[in-house]
């Protein structure tokens, strides 16, 4: 990726943001450790091992890292040995964890490792990387976040273009005040489940599929 920072990083971006991440994450892990242990025990009992779902995602400047989440799906396969659809493999426990965003809690360890931030563009799938436009690449100049401007502006109700535009806007307007506002709004969104879709794939097409079709239509005009 050819990434260019949209502007000179502020003092908060260079020093304060990481400090805030570490302080709030340590506090969150201390307060939520009993919940983390209970969820791990239940996932182990209901779904077996592994307890955590790990998947490679693009991080700062597109550098790959392994994101951690609590496992929410089985490994059910069809007669040909292929994994069944997400909707077929998603369990009742998994639906509950996703609906309450509890499946995201292990990402706090990604924050401690410096791979993620509490607030930033969500880390998407690696296969989406070739489909971002030059105007959208600034989203990779900051660490991906557990939550972000897109998540408090409509979450999965937004189109891909709207979500990515919100990511770029965040990079341009990043500040302590904005981060604290997004964190507080995220708490409210989680409690009310506003804009949440337990299985986004059932109502929203993958980014690469959508943009390939758009490119094909443009070439036919």
How would you portray this structure in words?
This protein has helices at 11-47, 86-89, 92-99, 107-112, 160-173, 176-192, 207-220, and strands at residues 52-58, 64-70, 117-119, 145-147. It contains seven helices and four strands, in the order αββαααββααα. The strands form two sheets. It has a two-stranded antiparallel sheet with strand order 1-2. The chain has a two-stranded parallel sheet with strand order 3-4. It is mainly alpha-helical and 221 residues long. The model has no long low-confidence stretch (mean pLDDT 90). It has one domain. A hairpin with a 5-residue loop joins β1 and β2 (64-70). The longest helix is centred in the first third of the chain and has 37 residues, at 11-47. 45% of the residues lie in helices and 9% in strands.
Architecture blueprint of SSEs:
Blueprint: H1 11-47, E1 52-58, E2 64-70, H2 86-89, H3 92-99, H4 107-112, E3 117-119, E4 145-147, H5 160-173, H6 176-192, H7 207-220
Parallel strand pairs: 3-4
Antiparallel strand pairs: 1-2
């Amino acid at each position: 990726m050819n990434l260019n920072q949209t502007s000179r990083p502020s003092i908060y971006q260079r020093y304060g943001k990481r400090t805030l991440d570490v302080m709030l994450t340590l506090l969150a892990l201390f307060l939520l450790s009993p919940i983390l242990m209970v969820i791990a025990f239940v996932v182990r009992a209901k779904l077996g091992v592994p307890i955590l779902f790990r998947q490679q995602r693009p991080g700062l400047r597109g550098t790959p890292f392994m994101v951690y989440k609590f496992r929410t799906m089985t490994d059910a396969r069809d007669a040909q040995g292929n994994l069944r659809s997400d909707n077929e493999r998603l369990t009742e426990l998994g639906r509950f964890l996703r609906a309450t965003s509890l499946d995201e809690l292990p990402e706090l360890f990604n924050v401690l490792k410096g791979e993620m931030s509490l607030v930033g563009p969500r880390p998407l799938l690696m296969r989406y990387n070739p489909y971002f436009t030059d105007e959208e690449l600034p989203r990779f100049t900051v660490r991906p976040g557990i939550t972000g401007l897109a998540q408090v502006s409509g979450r999965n109700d937004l189109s891909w273009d709207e979500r990515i535009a919100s990511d770029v806007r965040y990079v341009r307007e990043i500040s302590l005040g904005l981060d604290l506002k997004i964190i507080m709004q995220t708490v409210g969104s989680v409690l009310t489940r506003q804009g949440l879709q337990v299985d986004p794939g059932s109502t929203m097409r993958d980014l690469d599929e959508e943009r390939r079709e758009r490119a094909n239509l443009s070439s036919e005009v």
